[in-house]
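Re: How this chain folds, sequence and tokenised backbone to follow

Filed under: protein folding, tokenised backbone structure, sequence and structure records.

Contents: The amino acid chain and a row of whole-number tokens, matched residue for residue.

Body of memo: The sequence and its backbone structure tokens, given next.
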Amino acid sequence: MDASYALAKFLVEMIDRGRSADRTGVEVEVPLAQHELASLIGVSRNSMVRALSSLRSLGLVATTNQTVRVLDAAGLQQYVQSPPAAAGRPRAPDTWTTRDR
């Protein structure tokens, strides 16, 4: 499972359990170090770092010390509903570029 997807799914589950919300986003306090959070969702610490970076670059989350703020809960939910392709799985032919053929 892709680390970004696993983290997004975890955050959506946290939101669904009724974490606090405010006007600027949903704050999910994760009182764990990155390696502990990584272990919880079954990925390496390096994968967790990349996953957080990826979700930040998509504008879905912001992070501070042991806090993840979901900036776009609907976008995060959409991300979870459209999981990335499995690693190593070839792309569908209709997504190939001229260079791939």
Notes: The domain at 3-84 is CATH 1.10.10.10 (Arc Repressor Mutant, subunit A). Residues 3-16 form the longest helix (14 residues). The chain has one domain: 3-84.
